[in-house]
Amino acid sequence: MYYFLKEDFDVLLQEIQAIDNCIKLAAKEMGLSCQYSSETFHDNFAFEQAERDRNMWSNHIHKLIEVRNNANIIVPSPNQGKVSIGRTVKIRDLSSLTEKTFQIGSYMILNTKKTKEIMKLSYDAPLPKALIGAKEGDQRETFLGGKKHCFLILKVE
Predict the structure, then answer these.
(1) Phi and psi at residue 77, in whole multiples of 5°?
(2) What CATH number is attached to the domain comprising 37?
(3) How far is Cα 28 from Cα 89, in angstroms, rounded to an integer?
(4) Per-residue pLDDT reduced to its tens digit, 93-139
(5) Residue 93, beta-bridge partner list
(6) Residues ≥6 apart with Cβ < 8 Å to 133
(7) What is the dihedral angle through the alpha carbons of 100, 103, 107, 108, rounded to the nearest 10 degrees?
(8) For 26-40, how does the pLDDT look when each residue is reduced to its tens digit (9 = 90+)?
(9) Number of structural domains, the chain?
(10) How many angstroms separate the first and last alpha carbons of the chain?
(11) Which residue, of 73, 96, 125, is where some domain finishes?
(12) What is this structure's pTM?
């Protein structure tokens, strides 16, 4: 199961449609390339390139369709100070004393329109994965880049 915020799921659907159009265009190019040469595919660069493009887009769309078919749209729950998908989290790394603020987003972050200057991280990324379920004031430990880190959850919005 892949979890999505509605805005990212809508962009996923648009992406699938755009790739479908690219596949159709590549197939059309394959047909056109055969009209200008006595060779249908052998030693016909235009045909071979269009075929490569069609195969590339087909592989990509199959992956996205699998994600779409196994997607579940999440509506963020009312804020109860608990780290979850859709929430903005402010943390402090207790070893370096640096603070970071980010939003926990969908499986795939596709809606890149910025409403705030806050970075979005997929819930499936290592840091958000370690923090999900924690509450303000909780500490969570995880390994990032081969190093053990301890984070204090300062604020959940």
Answers:
(1) -75, 160
(2) 1.10.287
(3) 48
(4) 998 999 999 999 999 998 776 656 789 999 999 999 999 999 999 99
(5) 151
(6) 82, 83, 84
(7) -90
(8) 999 888 887 765 555
(9) 2
(10) 25
(11) 73
(12) 0.83
Exposure class string for 43-79: b at 16+ Cβ within 10 A, else e: ebeebeebbebbeebeeebeebeebbeebeebeeeee
Asked whether residue 46 falls in the same domain as residue 59, the answer is yes
- Which tokens go with 101? 């603020």
CB of 121 closer than 8 Å to CB of 105: yes
Which residues neighbour 145 within 8 Å (Cβ) at sequence distance 6 or greater? none
Q: Which of 82, 58, 59, 98 is nearest to 157 (CA)?
A: 82
Same domain, 66 and 123: no
Residue 18 domain boundaries: 2-73
C-alpha 145/C-alpha 128 separation (Å) is 14
Q: Which of 41, 73, 105 is the last residue of a domain?
A: 73
Each residue's pLDDT tens digit, 62-99: 999 999 999 999 998 888 889 999 999 999 999 899 99
Judgement on whether residues 34 and 99 belong to the same structural domain of the protein: no
Could you list the beta-strand ranges (E) of 6-138: 71-74, 88-93, 99-105, 119-122
